[in-house]
Design a protein that fits this description.
The protein is mainly α. The protein has 3 domains: about 80 residues, Zinc/RING finger domain, C3HC4 (zinc finger) (Herpes Virus-1), CATH 3.30.40.10; about 45 residues, no CATH class; about 180 residues, no CATH class. Helices cover about 70% and strands about 5% of the residues. It has 10 helices and 10 strands. A hairpin with a 6-residue loop joins strand 6 and strand 7. The longest helix has about 60 residues. GO terms for molecular function: zinc ion binding. This is RING-type domain-containing protein. InterPro entries: TRIM/RBCC, Znf-RING_euk, Znf_RING, Znf_RING/FYVE/PHD, Znf_RING_CS. It comes from Wuchereria bancrofti.
Length: about 350
């Protein structure tokens, strides 16, 4: 019975071979004489022919172009599907029928889809050692599901990273605008310093307004930076949760570790990226520079205010000294002179 099946398979395989390329038919086309050939072979053979065609086998002449042989095409497709299901044992090289195909989860890794073993080899070589044995078809479906889940996770992660990049760009634009405002404020403080050094008069109210403006700018910057850091933390937490959730779903598959190692999307790498990002935020040049500018503006403002207070105290002391000097001079004059001055004032 087995020999008859083998002879039948050999006959069918021979009937499925193209006489031009000597391979299994690919999109077979049939001539009027009944012979069929691959579509590519026919097109190459008759690419320069316009009217009359000749069969490569029987040399029959005809004028109608060849058409697709749908019956033969369907038969070829079924044979290819059947051949795809036929596997050979990786150990004994015998043909393993679909119901007798197994794989070892402990010995095979990401490419275990091709590591098919027959039931006899699995029992003698793996089951006795306590290895986990699974049906080839079931294992193939699990790996396919795991790959699909992993691909969905990668797609979602990439989408989150794109959103992080967009939000980061928007926040960076806000920080740049704050830098411009801080530069303008610093230029105004420099003008105040020049005016004070030149002996100009600036009211205390103007200085307080400038200080209030600088304080508001600093609060806006700090709030914007805090919101940005919180947003990035939330994004990275979502990525980490997504990675860990998918890891739990795929942990039962032996191929998961190899897939993750190749993709580079482990939860540990996501955590390291998050930590490195926030270290950059804490130690970045933007934060350091803004802190320096804020401290510098505050120092200049305090110096201006102290200078203004000193000038005000100096003017007050000069007025008091002038009044005291006038009183002392008047008291030192003779009585007659004092009376004359009083009479003159009257």
């Amino acid at each position: 019975m087995i020999e008859e099946d083998d002879n039948c398979d050999a006959f069918l395989l021979e009937a499925m071979i193209c006489s031009i390329c000597f391979t299994i038919f690919n999109e077979p086309k049939q001539l009027q004489c009944g012979h069929s050939f691959c579509a590519i072979c026919i097109d190459q053979l008759y690419k320069d022919v316009e009217q009359e065609y000749t069969c490569p086998l029987c040399r029959a002449h005809f004028t109608i172009p060849p058409v697709i042989n749908y019956s033969l095409k369907s038969l070829v497709s079924r044979i290819k599907e059947r051949d795809a299901m036929i596997k050979h044992c990786q150990q004994c090289s015998r043909v393993a029928k679909p119901e007798d195909q197994y794989c070892c989860d402990d010995c095979d890794h990401i490419d275990r889809i091709e590591h098919v073993r027959c039931g006899l080899c699995v029992i003698n070589g793996h089951a006795k050692m306590g290895h986990t044995i699974s049906k080839y078809g079931e294992s193939k479906e699990r790996i396919k599901t795991a790959q699909q889940t992993l691909q969905e996770m990668i797609t979602e992660t990439l989408q989150l990273l794109k959103e992080c990049k967009k939000l980061g760009t928007d926040r960076l634009s806000c920080v740049e605008n704050l830098f411009k405002l801080l530069d303008e404020q610093y230029a105004q403080f420099q003008g105040l310093e020049i005016a004070l050094n030149d002996g100009g008069f600036i009211s205390k109210k103007d200085i307080e307004m400038k200080l209030e403006h600088a304080r508001q700018l600093r609060e806006i910057y700090m709030r914007s930076t805090s919101e940005f850091a919180t947003l990035m933390n939330t994004m990275f937490n979502e990525i980490t949760v997504l990675t860990e959730r998918t890891g739990v779903e795929l942990a039962s598959h032996a191929a998961y570790k190899d897939i993750i190692d190749k993709r580079g999307l482990t939860a540990q790498s996501a955590q390291e990226q998050k930590q490195s990002w926030f270290e950059y935020q804490r130690n970045g040049r933007v934060s350091a520079l803004c802190s320096v500018i804020a401290r510098r503006n505050a120092t200049i403002a305090r110096r201006h205010l102290m200078t203004f207070n000193e000038n005000s105290e100096s003017e007050s002391s000069m007025d008091i000294t002038s009044s005291t000097s006038t009183a002392s001079v008047t008291s030192s004059l003779p009585v007659s002179s004092n009376q004359a001055i009083l009479a003159h004032q009257t």
